[in-house]
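Help! Submission page says 'invalid entity' but I think these are all valid:
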Amino acid sequence: MVATFQLSTDGNRAIDITDEIAAAITDSGVAEGIAVISLPHTTASLGIISFPDPLGLVDVMDEVSRLVPTRIDFKHQHDTPQDAAGHIKSTLIGTTLSLIVTGSAALLGHSQKVYFMEHDGPRKRQVHVQVLGQVGA
Amino acid sequence: MVATFQLSTDGNRAIDITDEIAAAITDSGVAEGIAVISLPHTTASLGIISFPDPLGLVDVMDEVSRLVPTRIDFKHQHDTPQDAAGHIKSTLIGTTLSLIVTGSAALLGHSQKVYFMEHDGPRKRQVHVQVLGQVGA
Amino acid sequence: MVATFQLSTDGNRAIDITDEIAAAITDSGVAEGIAVISLPHTTASLGIISFPDPLGLVDVMDEVSRLVPTRIDFKHQHDTPQDAAGHIKSTLIGTTLSLIVTGSAALLGHSQKVYFMEHDGPRKRQVHVQVLGQVGA
C-alpha cells in the first residue's frame, strides 16, 4: 500500500516532489482522503513552499542555515558539522507531512508545491507515500 | 467531503479557528478518526497555541518575526519584504496539521486551541478540513 | 480507539517514545494505514530525531533553547519564563505528528526514533495515539 520513490540530491537544495506524490495518489485509487508523506532520513525534511519564484526556494534554504549554522562545536561529533546541523534542521522542520486528497489529487494552493529539503547532500534519498480514504472514479 | 471556511485577517496575528474546525468535524459525522487541516496559502501557517493568556499569542507571533526578520535583502524580490519573510515562516511552521478525532470532536488539551497564523495580512484566506474515520452516533 | 500513555519528565530532555507508539499500533490491529500522535500539552513537542548518538539529542534540545531563549521579557507573565518560552517552542516544533503504518508497524528510517521533547519539566505528561487503516494479520 505504501508507495516509495527515489531521488538523488546534488547538494543542499529544495527539490520539487509534487509530481511524484501526485502519481502515488493516482496509483492508490483514492479519490477522497488524506496522504501522509514520510522520509526515512534524519538530515532532510519536507516543506510546502511557494514555487513561482525559484529564488524564494533559495531564501528558505538560506534562512534555515542562518537559523541553524553549520559549526564545529556541536556535541555530536561522529560525522561532519553539516550532518550535525542537518539532524537539527530535520527535526525542527519535520520529516512527515499530511495532505488532503480530494478529486484524486492533493489539495494544494495555486502557489504551493511540496519539496524535499536536503540538508546533507549529495545523497541518495527515498520518499514514502501512504494514501488513505475512499477509492473512487 | 472537504469542508472549507473563509476568514479575513486584519494584520499579522494568530486567529482562533478551533470552533470552525469543530463544526467541520461535526458536519462530517465522523466519531473516531483524524482530521487534516490544510491552508492553500504560502504566507500563513497553522499552530496549536496555549490560549488562556492572549499575550502568549503575541509572544509567539513576535518570536516568529524575531527569528525570521522582515528585511530587504531576500533574493525573492517580486513582492514585499513581508511577503518574502512570510514564505519562509509558512514553510518552517507548516500549513498542514493532523488532529485526532474522538467522541466526534478534536482531541485537544485544556489549554490548546488551533490558530491560523497570518504572516502577510490583511488578506482574505481559506482553511480546508478533511475528516476520515468511523462515522458514529 | 485512542490509546493514551503517560510519562514523567525529569527536566528538559528528548524522551524516546518509539516503543510506546509501536505498542499502540500493535494494539490497534491496523496493518496498513497511518498513526497520528498528539500531545495535549502546550510546553512540549514531538520530534523525529536521529538516535544512535545520544549527544545528538542534546544538540537538538540545546539548539531549540538557543533559538528561543528563556528570558524575562515575554509578554506572557502568568507563569515562569521557562513556561513562556515553552509555549513558543511547542507551537513552532508542533504537538502532532503523522506516521505511516505498514506491516503493523510505524515506517521509520534506521536512524529515526520518535521523541517527546519536554520544554517545561519536570512534569507528568500524556501522549495520545490514533491509528487508522486496514486491520490485518
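Support: the input was valid. A stray whitespace character was the problem, and the output above is from the cleaned input. Strands of chain B lie at 3-9, 14-16, 30-38, 44-50, 96-102, 105-106, 112-118, 123-135.
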